[in-house]
Amino acid sequence: METQFLYSLIVSIFIGGLAGFLGSLMITKRMALVGDALGHVALPGVALALILGFNVSWGALPCLALGIFLIWFFEVKTKLPMEALTGIVFTSSVAIAFLFLPESEVSNALIGDISQITLADTLISIVVSMITFFVLKKIYSKMILLNLSENLAQVEGIKVKKYNFIYLACIAMVVALGIKVTGSLLMGALVITPAAAARNFAHSLSQYSYGALLIGTISCFLGVLAFKVFNLPAGPLIILFASLIFLISIAFKRR
Amino acid sequence: MKNNLILEVKNLNVELAKERVIESLDFSLREKEILVILGPNGAGKTVLLKTLLGLFNFKGSIYWKPKTHLGYVPEDFDVSENLPLSVKEFFNFKKSGTIKISQSLQRVGIKSSAKFLKKRLGTLSSGQLRRTLIAWVMVDNPHVILLDEPMVGIDIHGRKTIYDSLVKLWQKRNQSIILVSHEIGEVCKKADKILALNKTKLFYGKPEKVITSQNLAKIYGDTISL
What we know:
The structure holds 2 protein chains of 2 kinds.
Chain A (H helix, E strand, L loop, with lengths): L1 H27 L3 H10 L1 H10 L3 H23 L3 H19 L5 H6 L7 H30 L1 H6 L4 H42 L3 H26 L3 H17 L5
Chain B lengths: L4 E12 L2 E12 L3 E5 L6 H8 L6 E6 L5 E4 L13 H6 L5 H10 L6 H5 L7 H13 L5 E5 L7 H17 L3 E5 L5 H4 L3 E6 L1 E6 L1 H4 L2 H8 L6
Parallel strand pairs in B: 3-7, 3-8, 5-6, 6-7
Antiparallel strand pairs in B: 1-2, 1-4, 8-9
């Protein structure tokens, strides 16, 4: 039981930190709600994984890839705003999932469950988190420059399509990992809240990005600890700790 | 003479949204030359720069000397006030060392202090941001710098001093310059060539030859003199 708890703690800390770090980029690019929407897109895969009994992250991933492809494809075909198309894809995904998601698994799918996690899953999650983190670290400054001025970035030799694709792949990866921790309903908060809080504390980009990473980590640590003590679901507790840190951060907001 | 040619544009045509924006344009640029592009609003000046930079599709030919490193100062460059990006971190995108950063900033009239480097980019005044951007583009010493209305937002006194110091530096470093402006004045006096544009070429040549009141009337539709 104790080892099991340690696995949960380690996995959530790694994923929480990674999600916070990614969130700092997503808020800058005004894509904060994309994490939330993708969390829902993943739901059919999550449902399938819960029924067949494998790690929900690996169920979520192909669903996310398909969802992102469909959003891109519809945009090319219809030229409708991306957010409208995202809305269509994510609600359809939720609808599909609820056709076959067993009632007993609803809560696991929506708010996550990290109480049962194997050593193999723990190791894989750590490795994937680390790889995704280093990829994000590598593209971070380029994404910020792209956000400041796409033309300037292009002249500096940054391939816009390539970097946007890598960035999107990282988002899909983080959402897939995060769903294990906070479920599809709360996944969005794992990227938004720590980064928003860090933005209030930060005076520089490194304080902002690593601050978000740290707040994500702390929220997960406290959330999983509280889950152990109070025997309440970990996902919501993690998000509430992140929200609490956000509230505290408001006092530090510089003008 | 041909071998110090750095850019040659022949019969350039650019269409945006099915509208012809630039028509059969020819001009060239040599090392150390300063080319000023004049024209009224909507003449296609910015489109021309972006086309030269490879950001738009075109017909005709644009020849850049191989391995030419380009720098670009875009016209619109705004930074959100609450983006926590410091001046130092902005320069770090180019991996420039502290000495180079302060040299580059000094050239645009900014005293580089630890305090300035820690400032958030978004909190700089528009003039300071403009100067910082010019310094940023110049910090890694591009062969050719394309500047789109670089002095917008910088006060009149600052414009002349910055421009004088930049011209000296460009000449020392053998840099070529393409500068877009909608105003005649300081920039034209130091130019080697002027290209006046309104979709197609209005006139092109050395400033002392082409800056005449008849020619200026072609751009601005009224009699103006320098």
